[in-house]
TrEMBL record:
It comes from Zemynaea arenosa. The lineage of its organism: Bacteria, Pseudomonadati, Pseudomonadota, Betaproteobacteria, Burkholderiales. This is Ricin B lectin domain-containing protein. InterPro entries: Ricin_B-like_lectins (IPR035992), Ricin_B_lectin (IPR000772). Residues 1-23 form the signal peptide. It comes from the Bacteria. Residues 29-165 form the Ricin B lectin domain. SMART domains: RICIN. Keywords: Signal. The keyword Signal applies.
Length: 170
């Protein structure tokens, strides 16, 4: 299973950085995003609260709020993260609130806060790091006890090490 994930992570990372802007994006299968800090039984989830579509880590299950699709953007090397629950109309976005660079779902647009770069973690190639065009390469998507934020990248922080599973690991 580790070898299969490693191959998938490397393929995704390399494909995203080497495809030309005019190449057609292959149909992407929904995936479940988990991180080292939260554990294998927790998945990135969109809360079904009617309007806010807040994000949190939740017990993995076969629910649409945990199914993510990475779609290549117009910017070479970047993807948008769409969620099945929001029917693909909303994207993972970073809001500049002056302090926290909060992560939320927002209507998909040509916005730098919705452009994500997927990079393999050098210390452990089973994981990838998610950075954002808006916050730059030095800030990574991190899951913490208080939610999801963009934080200074560090190879030692488990909340910044993400893995993609095509079926949830519970």
């Amino acid at each position: 299973m580790q070898r299969q994930f490693l191959a998938i992570a490397i393929t995704i990372a390399l494909s995203l950085t080497t495809l030309s802007a005019s190449a057609a994006l292959p149909a992407a299968e929904p995936t479940y995003l988990q991180n080292e800090w939260s554990g294998r039984g927790q998945c990135l989830d969109v809360v079904n609260d009617g309007t806010n579509n807040q994000l949190h880590m939740a017990a993995c299950g076969q629910v649409s709020g945990q199914q993510w699709t990475l779609r290549r953007s117009e910017q070479p090397g970047y993807v948008r993260l769409h969620n099945q629950f929001t029917t693909g109309a909303r994207c993972l976005d970073v809001v500049n609130d002056g302090r926290n660079d909060k992560v939320q779902m927002a209507a998909c647009a040509n916005a730098s806060g919705q452009l994500w770069k997927v990079s393999t973690v050098r210390a452990d190639r089973r994981y990838v790091r998610l950075t954002n065009q808006f916050t730059g390469r030095t800030r990574c998507l991190e899951s913490t006890a208080t939610g999801l934020r963009m934080k200074s990248c560090s190879g030692d922080i488990g909340g910044q090490r993400w893995r993609s599973e095509f079926s949830p690991t519970m």
